[in-house]
Amino acid sequence: MSRGFAIRTEGLGKRYVLGSQGTKHTSLRDALVDSARRALRFGRGSAPKRDFWALRDANIEIGHGENVGVIGLNGAGKSTLLKMLSRIVEPSAGVARIHGRVGALLEVGTGFSGELTGRENVFLYGAILGMRREEIARKFDAIVAFAGVEKFIDTPVKRYSSGMYVRLAFAVAAHLEPEILLLDEVLAVGDVAFQQKCMDFAKDLQRRDATILFVSHNMFSIKTMCERVIYLKQGRVEFDGSTDAGIARYEEDCRLGALWTPEGKDSWPIRVTDIAVRNEDGEPLISHAASAYVMSEQSAAGFDSARVVQMLIRRGANPNARDKQGNTPLFEANATALAP
Length: 340
Description:
Layout: E1 5-18, H1 28-41, E2 50-63, E3 67-71, H2 78-85, E4 93-98, E5 102-105, H3 118-129, H4 133-147, H5 162-174, E6 180-184, H6 192-207, E7 211-215, H7 219-225, E8 228-233, E9 236-242, H8 243-254, E10 270-278, E11 284-289, E12 293-294, H9 305-313, E13 331-337
Parallel strand pairs: 3-7, 3-8, 5-6, 6-7
Antiparallel strand pairs: 1-2, 1-4, 8-9, 10-11, 10-12, 10-13
Helix pairs in contact: 3-4, 3-5, 4-5
């Protein structure tokens, strides 16, 4: 890493106390809810408290210009890591050092006020991210055009769809021109056109030597954007290395390739034996053997391979797509019967 690190964590961890409600109230509603909760618990004693480490002993170093994917099952600590790096959550242990201007897009609506209009929230969120008012005003038209919400910019964002929320928030974060960008699965609610726009923006950031830390359950997006992945498991760094090797560990743990039944895979009637993915010219992009087993009542003769490919690809793929001439399927799977 010729320019040193952009992100470095040493023994980073976050501990929560389960069963503890805390006493800090940020609104009258919170105070009333807490009072009602304590009244309902009267005479029953308090619930036992115990520690829960959402993330523990994370030692990570990411260089300038790296695109790194963060993957793991639900509850693995991915969002907690990004919240600590963006200084939203204070670590319980360890330290995190950041070198560079940070832009973060962590959850739908983070940094927005529902009662304010889109216009007002652009200035609010931009200020939260560290932009000066003059800078926001100069970039305002470009931000709104990127988000594609021109017609609704003076409408309170509480009336926005989740997709509109994300588009506007991402547009603000994008025009911050960050040196480090933290993304947490928020692009999943955008449509295909907006996701492609975000991918193009991320590639442009990479050409400018920016660092991107990208949390997603979409392994195709991870493969497209990242050359390295950090795989978190039960709050610890289980793997830090190449994308293919990290995804293989993730898929092995969550068993994406199979639907399990009590009878065991040997009793299932269909096994997917190979998969092919082609580009629009019909040239193969991926072609390899697969060991995915599918539970189905259909016979091999009535088996619909497109449905299996759709299951394997999970999201974003059209299983019936064909090449430019309309002859060769872009997605194809072969299957054999395992049992009568």
